[in-house]
Amino acid sequence: LTNIDGYNMVSFRQPEIVREIFYNIPQLKCRHDDVFVCASSKSGTHWTWEIVSMLLTGKAEIIPKSKVAHMLEAMLTEIIDEIPSPRVLNSHLHLCRLPREALEKKCKFVFILRDPRDVAVSLYHHCKGISLYEYDGMFENFLPLFLEGKLEYNNYLEYVAEWEKALEERSEIHLIYYEDLKTNCIDEVRKLALFLGVTCTDDLIRDISYKCSFEQMKVEKEKYPLEELRQPFFRNNFSMFRKGATGEWKNTFTVAQNEYFDSMFLEKMKNSKLLRRYT
Ligand code: A3P
């Protein structure tokens, strides 16, 4: 972990570069047509990034570019500056750490939420599968790190609370639940198109939903050398497209872990309009 003023980051880059990127992000120059895809790590960022990119290009074709090349905390500001419009940028950073101009210029944001228990399971495999995390522990040891906000991007509930407040105040943020995208992708893609102001046919919406289904994306995306930046750090057969399921936590959490989760998260989730559906 690179700790920057109390904020935990993990990167395939040198710590001084990570620091430089992190400090530059708030000053990033934004354009009116920039779209920001934001979610906590492992909540469906790759999936949504692909859908938004397809909607903006008007083609149901897998983008031969990597999401990570459009990720604020992964790329140097100079590189982000050179991306042609319309840019589909993405980040797992807390809202207060994102480019200030994005909020001032009322750029569009797509925010994705996923059951935090599934996020924890997915993140566990992520940390074990990428050598940078140097993590070899068991899930029972990992869960406290997630719940106590000791992993990269710090505290999950604080992260969601910040977005919840912004969603109440701003109309340029569109909320998507991973679970809804999974069960009713076509409707969610249609709503997303409307939010983005993209006119498209029912055929295109159907084709995008299909092309972005887990099975299709896994096969297609893994064909491209899209992970050129992160690939060297992948252990064994690690893939960013692992299972793509909902409710996997039920097969992972023990009764004791579930009780522990509830003791740390449940009350706060009940008090959150966004997270209440998971209680
Ligand atoms: P799992 O580890 O549970 O499989 P992110 O992109 O924010 O890092 O999130 C990664 C999670 O989203 C992984 O979850 C990954 O498999 C899942 N995912 C990626 N593409 C998906 C798709 N097209 N449909 C459903 N889930 C997808």
Task: Report how far the terminal alpha carbons are from each other.
Answer: 31 Å
What structural class do you assign from the helix and strand content? Answer: alpha/beta
Distinct small molecules: adenosine-3'-5'-diphosphate
Total count of helical runs of at least 4 residues: 13
Q: Low-confidence parts, pLDDT < 50 over ≥5 residues?
A: none
Short descriptors:
binds adenosine-3'-5'-diphosphate, globular, 9% strand, two-stranded antiparallel ribbon, P-loop_NTPase, Sulfotransferase domain-containing protein, single chain, alpha/beta, 46% helix, four-stranded parallel sheet, 279 residues
Describe the structure.
Residues 33-272 form the Sulfotransferase domain. Keywords: Transferase. This is Sulfotransferase domain-containing protein. It holds the Pfam family Sulfotransfer_1. The structure is a single chain. The chain has 279 residues and is of the alpha/beta class. The protein is built from 13 helices and six strands. The protein has a four-stranded parallel beta sheet with strand order 4-3-5-6, sandwiched between helices. A two-stranded antiparallel sheet has the order 1-2. It binds adenosine-3'-5'-diphosphate. The site of adenosine-3'-5'-diphosphate has 20 residues, from helix 2, helix 5 and helix 11.
Chain-wise SSE layout:
Elements: E1 2-4, E2 7-9, H1 15-24, E3 35-39, H2 45-57, H3 77-82, E4 88-91, H4 100-104, E5 108-113, H5 116-129, H6 139-147, H7 156-169, E6 173-177, H8 178-183, H9 185-196, H10 202-211, H11 214-223, H12 249-252, H13 255-270
Parallel strand pairs: 3-4, 3-5, 5-6
Antiparallel strand pairs: 1-2
Helix pairs in contact: 2-9, 9-10
The chain binds adenosine-3'-5'-diphosphate.
Residues 39, 41-47, 122, 125, 182, 212-214, 217, 241-244, 248 line the site of adenosine-3'-5'-diphosphate.
